[in-house]
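Box S2. Input/output pair 1.
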Amino acid sequence: MNLIQFMGAVEIGLLYGLVAMGVLLSFRILDFPDLTVDGSFPLGSAVCAILIVSGANPWIATFAAILAGMVAGFITAWISVRWNILHLLASMLTMFALYSINLRVMGRPNIALLGENTIFTPIENLPYPHLYTMSLAMLGVTSIVLVLLYWFLSSEKGLAMRATGANMRMAKAQGVSVNKQILFGLALSNGLVALAGALFAQSQGFADISMGVGTIIMGLAAVIVGEAFFNPKVILTALIACVMGSIFYYLVRAMALNASFLGFQASDLNLVTAILVGIAMITPRLRAKILDFKSSWGNS
């Protein structure tokens, strides 16, 4: 793996760190299995891209993409809490609907942003290698989002949301409106995913209807890898582990696909992903068994 491939993997890993934080919010904090992200990621790309090519300010287009993603997440949560529909089924309904909505928004399967002004245009015009400036820009955006999300989750409202996911009955007994927490939490989660989609479209120069396929797997992979190798105990460490897990995942995937002795090809991407996620899921159990063995050996 050369320097270009390495920095490219770091850049994409930082971007998908936003997706991982959104998945952490729904899967881990709210305990709400949400598949909407496969639709909200391309939704963010579609809304941002169509507004930019229509002449809108790229910052306004990015903000509109976040709002669109939040609406998608809110609809999933509303279907679930208002009509008592199973989490997975509610999110699948929204995800399938978003495919058609994304096509409606773009008007065609893909939109090219080459030559258009984006939020990265000032960075691209700097007299420094694009290879490093884009990675630093992604690092800045991801760091800001991480700090803001940590601040929110440490606030009273954030603690109420965490209590909802940890023990819904206890949260209700403490006067927490659990339905409102789920509605806002899913909206925030998909808003983060849509932001990642908007940034992806602007950094890569296109938006495509199929770009959301497998987003939930990538987000889960980043969360699981982060938890497996960094073993977070507090919320700040968990958020950092998501981003680090995303970077680690994309670096390992790039190395696997570029290692000729392994024999992997570009068509084996899903296989490599499945292997990485499987290893990450097994690692905590192996660690626990090793610790139990050491403990029993020491007692004997």
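Box S3. Input/output pair 2.
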Amino acid sequence: MRIGINGSDKLVQPNLDEILNDIEESEAAGFDSYWLAQGGLLDAVAALGLAGARTSTIELGTAVVPTWSRHPHTLAGQALTAQAATGGRLILGIGLAHKVSVEDGLRMKWERPIRHMLDYLDVLQPLLTDGAVDHDGEVWSFNGGGPRPTDDPPKVMLAALGEQMLKIAGRRCDGTILWCVGPATLEQQIVPIISEAAGEAGRPAPSVVCSLPVWVTDDPKPAKEFVGAVLKDYAVLPSYRAMLDIEGVHGVEDISLIGSEAEVREGLDRIAAAGATDFTGVVMGGNRDERERTRSTMAAANA
């Protein structure tokens, strides 16, 4: 299992220089990948494209760009530009987001999410691979194309938790990017469904990217309480609640990797054994020493 960094915690108070420095440091430490969510008003695709000039080997992924707010033609152009800037190291992760954010934030109606995603891929993927598409869909449409800055399309991965979305990810994409998913859910739900769908479609084995908070500490109780409080909303969002129920836990704090170096390593081993191909940790800590211990533990596990 490859190990990377999920730097989305830096979006709370986004500083572009700090994010780019963190990506550089992550590459120097030997991590395989670095991921950013699309949150707030910092553009994740643009930031990763900028990181291309300051790095050379680390994979750079979005986890994830919500589809509702960007036409697939727009996102195709952004992704191809970042792919060119990174020398072919971009992984474009996309996802539906949630009904509450779509309806309350974007003031758009949440409807036909599966049709929405199928149409999105029907426009996005041909533009990435061929530079042109003619698709008249129910939700998304586009007819046209143009010259691309690179003929090397980025991998496309899908945030998928439920059965229908996992099957789409397996049949159409390079894998899935996960949040709020522990080893039991990986083994019972995620890996079997996406792998079977990919096999039936004659596609390569899909990547399964698991992401969770990681916190090396000698005092895990307050750390778990903090994670539970900060991430409490995930325990009630329907799609994540369903995954936590499979895991048999209350909230994200119960599946986060929190504890000693040995306990974190054991948690990583369980995730790998459950079928994850990649793990990306959100590095946490109550002080600088704990954050450094956390990153060092992850880096040692990756080595």
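Caption for Box S3: The longest helix spans residues 113-130. The chain has a mean pLDDT of 97.
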